[in-house]
Prior knowledge:
Layout (H helix, E strand, L loop, with lengths): L1 E4 L2 E4 L2 H25 L23 H12 L2 E6 L2 E6 L2 H10 L11 H7 L9 H18 L4 H19 L6 E2 L1 H17 L8 H17 L2 H8 L1 H4 L5 H25 L9 H12 L9 H32 L1 H14 L14 H14 L8 E2 L4 E3 L2 E3 L4 E4 L1 H5 L42 H18 E4 L22 E6 L2
Parallel strand pairs: 4-9
Antiparallel strand pairs: 1-2, 3-4, 5-11, 6-9, 7-8, 10-11
Helix pairs in contact: 6-7, 6-17, 7-13, 8-11, 11-13, 13-14, 13-15, 13-17
Amino acid sequence: MYETLPGIMIPSDPITLVLSTILCLLFVLFFFGWKKNAYNLPPGPRPLPIIGNLHILDMKRPYLTMHELSKKYGAVYTLQLGVEKVIVICGYEAVKDALVNHADEFSGRPKVTMFDEMYKGHGIILSTNDNWRAMRRFTLSTLRDFGMGKETIERKIAEESDFLVQKFRSYKGEPFDNINNINAAVFNIIIYILLSTRFDYEDPTLLKMLKMIHEIDILTGSPMAVLYNTYPSVMRWFTSVAKKAIRNLNGLHVFIQEAFTNHRKQLDVNDQRNLIDSFLVKQREEKPNPKLYFTNENLTQLVADLFEAGMETSSITLRWGLLLMMKYPEIQKKVQSEIDKVIGTNEPQVIHRKEMPYTDAVIHEIQRFGNIVPANVSHATTQDVNFRGYLLPKGIQVIPLLTSVLNDKNHFVKANEFYPEHFLDSSGNFVRNEAFMPFSAGKRSCAGENLAKMELYLFFTRLLQNFTFKAPPGATLDLTPAVGFIASPMPYKMCAIPRV
């Protein structure tokens, strides 16, 4: 019945052989699959073979489908992208529970092919483990030293606001596209902190960098990127989306590497002028350590991360703000009345903000309504975690859906409308709303949050102090967000009518 090989007994009867094979397979499945079966994932839409739930997603704006699915499957559900299971978390309470109450467990980043190929685990946004902790600690400390909360950076933003006002005046009330001007103004703030320099708005190097950053956003948020990350081994033969994104990122890296090479030649340990100087000093201090974090690769990507995050988010929010002021002229007029009353023709300062509850509410509502990072940056679990009755495995991708927080009807009564009263009480005083979470929350929240808040207030008030913004004659103002990882407004033209 059995044939033998040294140390092995093989059944010779065909039926016995089949039964033995089945038994072995069941044993292997039981032995290796028991842990998988032990997990208790939340329910979700039924997946199809190979494609999972891709067929039900709005591929241009998947966050809309994800938010809609939460109405059927609850605040925590499973979505399947191809063969990968993803946990989607919706609504303020559930997202806060994950990112704040379980901050450590949800602080990882998932393996995403396109991002792995682009960023290679360097920098701050998509790095993980000890490298991420070292880069975040350094970034928060250095931004605090050179930017956030400092009078020097407030002065720099005020100066840049003047340049932007001059640029807007040069159009003499005629229609123009504000994208490059606003991008350049905000970019000049972050590049001052990083490199102690400033670019003219027409500088070819600046325009080239702005173009590369914008294209990275469009490419990484495109439907082709979703398909590429779902089926990388197949899609790399059909699309060049990853190659184009990498080409743009490499172009940005070339500029950054040239900059820190020049800084290294002029480095004075006792006179650290900016973030790159501080990094290079850390690099020198770390050299004897075999476990290096302050590498050239980390410096290059950290600066690129801060370029992307520090420019795109604030400039896009400002562009939403001006579009909404044109759409709702009565709100624009109320903001201007408050500016005239509190500031007059003086230069706006951060200390004025507490005396301007309506303007403060409008800025918050612009951020909420603009909803510029609707799907958040994906997280991953750092360990097996019990969460809201489910056992989630280590390393599973998690999407804490920010659009579901900023549009949570339990916290924003007119979630689908632009309604500054979300942040005002019955007496017109500014009130905080706990579900206001445009910078995300927890250990992966935006490192430049305080700087962004200062930029938004100073640029916004300075522009509305000097101009009334109107749509060109016959223009239609579309509030539909463009396609991309960051939800920017559709391109539009505006007229800046001088007030003073």
